[in-house]
């Protein structure tokens, strides 16, 4: 049985893990707490379907069934609710596919001022004196500026997600988006959840903002040599961390929160 499906995407270090855990407190929702391989599986499957000798073997109906069953099978557990939220930053670059497979689906995009996204990356990478994080290739780790340059590049964790977000925000399927600003999430969490409930057309639920129970994916973070990448605080509130980026990097990133400028939102994308 196909479940109702929505998605979480957007920028890294912008509250997606926290939001996923909170959504998971809703009795009608199963929400993946960190990135799943479903998007990659679908992408690789489509490359086989659309290229080479097998191209003639797939009708549109068969393609749709294969892709939707990939989602259903990955999230198949008897106790899970009928509403599933998958999590992957690449979904912003797949809105045409999502509109084809799930016309009513929403893509919840977690966003945050890029200055503080990069500051968060540098803070967590810098915890390790050996600078071993696979988030940045070894040849780009020598200085903060090299690390920032890589993170901002199209191959970097931030650069790819930021470009995909822009593509989605200004593109023809922008009506599928719901942006959740990190600052709103941590300062007004209940208001954010109530608005999301309306967007997802689900009943109101009770959320415990003072005791967010969650087991971080330590093996996942270890595989990236970035321990603590998906840690969240037990209480939903603003986290006070110092700005450790030099002025030139801050100036370079200034103004990157384009969604906060109403003149940059001609399609009236929903922003919480």
Write structural notes for this entry.
The structure is a single chain. By secondary structure, the protein is α/β, with parallel strands linked by helices. Helices cover 40% and strands 10% of the residues. The protein is built from eleven helices and six strands. Strands 2-3-1-4-5-6 form a six-stranded parallel β-sheet, with helices on both faces. Helix 2 packs antiparallel against helix 3. The mean pLDDT is 96.
Q: How large is the count of helical segments?
A: 11
SSE series: EHEHHEHEHHHEHHHHE
Q: Helical content, roughly?
A: 40-55%
**Number of DSSP-assigned strands:** 6
Supply Rg.
19 Å
Main features:
single chain; 272 residues; alpha/beta; six-stranded parallel β-sheet; 40% helix; globular
Can you describe this structure in just a few lines?
The chain is an alpha/beta fold. It is 40% helix and 10% strand.
Please specify the SSE layout and strand pairing.
Elements: E1 4-10, H1 16-24, E2 29-31, H2 38-50, H3 60-74, E3 83-87, H4 95-101, E4 107-111, H5 114-125, H6 144-152, H7 157-170, E5 177-181, H8 182-187, H9 189-200, H10 218-223, H11 247-253, E6 270-271
